[in-house]
Every structure is written in C-alpha cells, then in structure tokens.
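Sharing a chain and its predicted structure for anyone who wants a worked example. Both blocks are below, sequence first, tokens second.
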Amino acid sequence: MGMAKPEKLKDQSAAVSRRTVLKAGLGLASAGALQEKSGILGSAEASMAPRQSETYAHIRGFNYQPSWDFNGSVIWRQFKPELFDLELGQGKRYFPGINTIRLWLSFDAFIGGAVANQEVVAGHFETALRIANKYDLKVIPTLFNGWHSVPDFGGVAQEMVKNWMDDRYPTTPRNVFVPYLEKFVGEHAADHRILIWDLCNEPFDSGVTPELLKWLKFLYRKCKELKATAPIGVGTPPSMDHLRLLLPVSDVLTIHPYGNREFLAEALDLGQKTGKPVLATECCWGSTDDLKRARIIETELSELQKAGIGFLAHVLHHSLVADCHREQYGPVSVAGYMAFIEADGSLRRYHEVFNKFI
C-alpha cells in the first residue's frame, strides 16, 4: 500500500455511541454536496462510469493478510488452514455481502529451498482457494510485491530485478520466474475462483527503472502465454505517472486511491479513454482512532460507490503484517491501524459501517 495520506478529516468525540455515529452518517456531507465537491462525477465521468466499470462495479471485499506472521514467506511456508478458515469465516460473518478477497502470495516462499518445497507452497495456495470458495469469495492473487515497510513483508527490490533481467545473462532472467508463474498461473489458468491476477503490488514504490518495466512486461507476456483467462492488473498507488506506465501490462486498472480524489477522477478518465475497467483493490486509509477510521471508510467508500467503482478495503483482519496491527504488536507507521477485525476476533468499533456499501 502506498503512503499517500488522504485529506484530513475533522475529529469527533470518541464518547459518541456507535449507534449515534451510524445514524448520523458519521457527520458527512450530503451525497449531492460530496459529488459536487469531489469533482469525481462530472458530466463526462457520470455518463461513462457505468460502462467502463460494469464488470467490477459489484465487487465488495477486502485485502486479507493472515494473522500468524509479518512475513509473506513464513505465512505461506507455515500455512495454517484452520486459522485461515476461521479468519475468513469471521469476515463473512461480520460482512456477509463481501464477494472477493485479495491475497498476497510470496515468490520468496516458493523459490527458496528445495524444489519439493515448491509443491508444498503451491498446495497451500490451492487450499486457500478452496477455503475462499467455501465462503463464496473470488480471489485476486498478488504474485509479487513492491511495497516495503517495517517489519518487511518481503518481495521484489530494484536490485533483484535489475540483476535478473540483465541482458548479459540471457538464460537466468527468464528461468528464475518461469516455474513460479507456471505453477501458480499456469495450473490455475482457467480457474473460475480467480477474479484477476495482480502481477505486482505497487512495483514502483521505490522508484521506476527500465528493468522493472521490462520485468513487468515479461511477467505479463508469460501469463498470457500460459493462457490465463482471468484479466491482469497491477496494484497502483495514487500516481498517474505510474498508472500510465502500467497500461501495457494492465487489462484492468487496479488502483489504490486512498481518498485521493484527483487521482480517482483521473484514473476514471484514463479508463474511459482506454476502454479498461477500473477497480480499487486497496482503499480505506488507516487510523489508530476507531471513530476517525470509520469516518475515513465512510468518505472513501461513498466516493467509490458514487463513481461506480468496486472496491477491496485494506485490511480484513488483524495481522502481524505492517499496518495491520495495533502498537502492542509492533511499529505503527503513518498509515495507522487498518484492520477491520481485532486480534481477538471481535469486530473493530464502528467498522460495521462497511456494510452500508454492500
């Protein structure tokens, strides 16, 4: 997730009851005033939004980081199907209308160690798909990750991609990534449980390089060669420069607007001009203050719903992954605390507001 903080919201007293907060609509402006103020639905956008987002306008869901570790490699090597099932089940119970989850896979978990380990990790992915399907949830698997925080989830870095995509070594750049794509994308190429393949979460967070662009194009071409039937996107923070660079490897514009109204409007416009649908695969900026966070959710989801854009909030459940926990579980960044379900399995205060948009 990117670090583009949304507009500041006025604080309300934490003493206000949950019922009062929800009944008052969290003190937000009327729909008409919000539409006029945001500028998201000008005449062109209003007329085009239903057409360009019709495939994914119904999507309602969450990013999900399992709770048992902070690192993707450990999460997928030491997979805990019972806990995975429990936490998705909690999500479906609190938010019964959700239909999609976005899972962050781990190339590190797959590629590190013996070849036999690859089958184990791939088996864990199949188990995750089966459990998600049990709860009628489509899955957006994120193949690689370019976002780094403290503690680090793991993923690609510019140095790694540069070394492995160097033309002076014509065999290794392709071979190192191919088994992973073949196992995950190739063996699930026609899997009805997959909604979209996310090539990489926020690949340019540490900068744009020719090697990164080359690498993404390689991944995209390989997925197409493997006959993936689900469309492909790349998780993109609020940067139109990034979004335009990613057009050649995006069948769907999978954006992370996080309350950035200008970015959302421009992304919608780009989608209309290019004929590509738009889906917010991350949204709902965090806060350690439960009420303030609920108001952020209300604001962001109101805007996305009015724009005809489906969305996946970040993040379903408390986790040791960065930005998914309170301070007693580790460092808390400027993104705050982003979970909807607490560590003890209870619903975070005021966060049932999400159900207003299902």
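Comments welcome. Residues 164 and 170 are 9 Å apart (CA to CA).
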